[in-house]
Amino acid sequence: MNTTSSRAQGPHGTEASEAAVGRIVLLTTSHRVAPGLLSWPAWQVLRDADRVSCADGAHPQLPYLREAGIVVDEAAPSAQELIEACAGGRTVVVVATGEGEPRLTDGLARLAGSGRVRMPELELLPASYDLPGARLLDLVQVMDRIRAECPWSSRQTHRGLAKYGIEEAYELVEAIEAGDRDELREELGDVLLQVVFHSRIAQEDPDAPFSIDDVAGGIVAKLIHRHPHVFGDETATTPEEVKEHWLRTKALEKQRTSVTEGVPLGQPGLALAAKLSSRARTAGLDVPLPHGEGVGYELLAMAARAEAEGVDPEAALRAAARTYRDAIREAESGG
């Protein structure tokens, strides 16, 4: 079929210069959005199209398109066939598969570049968009497959992975302190992986299983409850008032009898000392530091002083240690 020489008669018998070339619409959808939730422009073009084609017979959108009365041709037309189908000003919609349509788009590009074919209008129409956080669904799916098929990952336990959680947390802190944005993004991903990995393992527990959705639901509920100044009727105008809200609601939730409950004793010593000092100060408790002999009591006093001054003693010590490391390297190089 010669798409460049077709002619038509005008309303008064005059011959139109050339026939309308039609339109090819490549319709893309996101697998992270529930099938059938398409944009209104997408539904309009599907409804008005002269032909709708989809090469993937298992495409999740197909049942919903058929339910809407749209006839879908489950074929993989070539670029030339699509151009011919557009003759006379017709519109052809191609519902893209999950991999896109590289063969089709490459074929159209070759024909357009040849200069021998009058091309129809080409349009890319996103029918659905990812919501913020949608790629987290990909992470969950990838983790499911790795857990099922990877010989190493399938054998991991919460206890076995615990050390990696600690390591990744320290690497995240290091990236933050170094100000390396690329490293920060990567380390945040590694920490997130630990959360998803542990949640996936937890699904298999025979007695008390929970999933990543339970984890996310729990932290959402906690954040809402502990921010009554955002989601409720209370007010807070300073960070100190926010912290008071947080500690008060947390105490009610946990029904703790001491402000020291929930402070992990296994954390690094300086951080532990600063945390205890912070809890006491926030609660309005005037508790003198214990006096004793030795470096431990001296470090305790220094950590408490740092916390009172708004300084993270762990971060301060790491910064000083890095300076010391650089001095050692300079000495080693003979500088």
Summarize the structure.
With 335 residues, this protein is mainly α. The protein has 3 domains: 23-126, Cobalt-precorrin-4 Transmethylase, domain 1 (3-Layer(aba) Sandwich); 132-213, MazG-like (Helix Hairpins, Orthogonal Bundle), CATH 1.10.287.1080; 269-325, no CATH class. Helix content is 52%, strand content 6%.
Ends apart, CA distance between termini: 80 Å
Strand order of the largest sheet: 2-3-1-4
What is the percent of helical residues? 40-55%
CATH topology of the largest domain: Cobalt-precorrin-4 Transmethylase, domain 1
Q: In the CATH classification, which architecture of the largest domain applies?
A: 3-Layer(aba) Sandwich
Overall average residue pLDDT: 88
Supply the number of structural domains: 3
Secondary-structure-derived class:
mainly alpha
Poorly predicted parts:
1-18
Total count of strands: 4
Assembly state of the chains shown: single chain
Radius of gyration based on Cα positions = 32 Å
The CATH class of the largest domain: Alpha Beta
Strand content: 5-15%
> What is the H/E order?
EHEHHEHEHHHHHHHHH
Shape: elongated
Report the sheet with the most strands, covering strand number, pairing sense and barrel closure. 4 strands, parallel
Total of helices: 13
Protein name: Nucleoside triphosphate pyrophosphohydrolase
Domain NTP pyrophosphohydrolase MazG-like: 156-231
InterPro entries: 4pyrrol_Methylase_sf, MazG-like_dom, NTP-PPase_MazG-like_N, NTP_PyrPHydrolase_MazG
Pfam families: MazG (PF03819)
